Amino acid sequence: MDYKERIERAKAVLDSAEYLVIGGGAGISDAAGLHFSGKRFTDNFRPFIERYDFEDLYTSSFYSFKTEEERWAYWAKHISLNRYETPATELYLDLFKLAKRKNYFVITTNVDHQFYKAGFPAEKIFAVQGDYGFFQCAKGCHNKLYYNEDIVKEMIAQTADCKIPAELVPKCPVCDGLMEVNLRKDNYFVQDEAWYAASDCYTAFVQAIVDKRVVFLELGVGFNTPGIIRFPFEQMTYQNPNATLIRVNSHHPQGAKENIRQTISFSEDMAKMLAAL
Ligand SMILES: [Zn+2]
May I ask the CATH architecture of the domain 1-34+86-129+191-277? Predict the structure, then answer.
């Protein structure tokens, strides 16, 4: 099917759908302009690139820093750029306009807060993998998250020679150990009460629509963590003859064999495609 036909078909299923489940992966924020490489990276991380030979913002986030002072200088800038300096982007705003017409829920692996910034209410979002805006105990010794905007800004203000002063290194208020950004990367990821509440809301939402006219709108979800959005969306579509999966993915747009007829795939530009819907 050519692009125009797929857009028309996607519009038609969206118009007639009673429910909309949006799945947001890394590809949506990239399409929205939050690039992890190229000019956005080199403009903002020049001192770190010169010091550590960083190639992009993805690989640099796995770098093993020698000291906490260096680690937090880098992470403060990483968090600040992606969480505090970047406002809601056009693409997410367009998506919110589209979602508002429906009874919807969002599940996302993104940690950049863009859904919230664009106007999606917190009670309709399940951000599975965490949020740049919070610190947690690095060993997960207790179940609480700490909003980090002020401390991050202070770290940046006091960064010199790619280091923060020792007295700004965050410490766990319970065990006095190291702190971490609340991103799922090991078994110590903290899921607080709000996380469990969002998880329950999402589960209740998808359980209530198993036989309803539903569109699963999957945006930029690849194979990093396909078990969170991609495979469940395929499964839930397959189990419901009234469901359609709209999959937008520049690299892996194809649907699963079992429900190819219920899948509309796009590998085209996501921003343009959403604007057309
Ligand atoms: Zn602790």
Answer: 3-Layer(aba) Sandwich (3.40)
